[in-house]
Design a protein that fits this description.
This protein is mainly α. The protein has one domain (2-277). 79% of the residues lie in helices and 0% in strands. The longest helix is centred in the middle third of the chain and has 35 residues, at 123-157.
């Protein structure tokens, strides 16, 4: 499994570098290397996830290192779905780094597959974590689309558009990507929160309220407000792009800072204790 992990990590590194070079130069060679690296990386990554599933009977979402590996995988999967829908290879220049960083971080964490405790082997826990990561991946794409929108709008407003203007998609397309990603991510996050509440009720007999629960609700409200503002008040374009960036910042704060540095039901310290009680400590 180490070989598969480092093959995926190396391929994503090359894909990230050449996707950025493709954006800067629009060289057909850079585009081919970038696409080939992502395909190789995703195949190795998918095989790795499958091998973990076969070895443990579950997805690697219960531990810190494992969740990073899975988060990276769903980002690439949604990027592929986006590419199939909109044919925007330049999106990879802004999305791929967010798939590479979790994998790089996971390289410094324990990724040894181990059976999670019975508490975390529930179908509701599986649904909760999978839906949450899919939602997070969608919000990564919305964030990337928001950044690209603001860059392109700046080019348009300058009245002297440069090379960046020609390399980025039209503003309407980027706004549509933003809308599509949030419209996909919001119901996934909603279902993730609901399934998490059901799992907690079944596992603990109550819904523990900790900083991550509060932050998840805040994030849910932000993305719900973005969708409502778009459809009710016509907030599109720059406003929607900025809100997508703000929502992404809140999401990442909840996942990285709250999960790691705050004690509570959702913290990785809590997961470590459960895994330790089950006789394991890895992915």
């Amino acid at each position: 499994m180490r070989t598969l992990f480092y093959l995926a990590l190396t391929a994503y590194f090359l894909g990230t570098v050449f996707s950025i070079l493709y954006f800067l130069r629009r060289s057909r060679l850079f585009g081919r290397v970038y696409l080939g690296a992502v395909i190789v990386g995703f195949l190795a990554h998918t095989t790795l996830i499958g091998a973990i599933w076969i070895a443990t009977g579950e997805l690697p979402t219960a531990s810190h290192g494992g969740s990073m590996v899975f988060f990276s995988w769903v980002i690439i999967a949604l990027l592929a779905l986006l590419e199939a829908r909109y044919r925007l290879p330049v999106m990879g220049s802004f999305v791929l780094p967010w798939a590479f960083i979790p994998m790089l971080y996971a390289a410094f964490l324990n990724r040894t597959p181990t059976h999670a405790p019975a508490l975390l082997r529930s179908g509701w826990f599986f649904a909760h974590t999978t839906l949450a990561f899919l939602a997070y991946a969608a919000f990564v794409i919305a964030f990337a689309g928001g950044i690209m929108y603001l860059l392109q709008e700046r080019q348009v407003r300058s009245h002297r558009p440069g090379a960046t203007f020609r390399r980025l998609p039209p503003l309407d397309t980027l706004d549509e990507v933003n809308r599509w990603a949030i419209a996909l991510g919001f119901p996934l996050l909603t279902l993730g929160i609901v399934t998490g509440a059901i799992w907690a009720e079944l596992a603990y007999g109550r819904l523990p309220v900790d900083p991550k629960v509060v932050w998840s609700v805040v994030t849910w409200l932000i993305y719900g407000a973005i969708l409502n503002a778009r459809h009710t008040f016509g907030w599109r374009g720059r406003k929607a792009a900025k809100l997508a960036i703000v929502g992404f910042g809140l999401m990442m704060f909840g996942y990285v800072v709250v999960n790691v540095h705050y004690t509570g039901f959702h913290s990785f310290r809590h997961a470590f204790r459960l895994l330790g009680a089950a006789g394991g400590s890895g992915m």
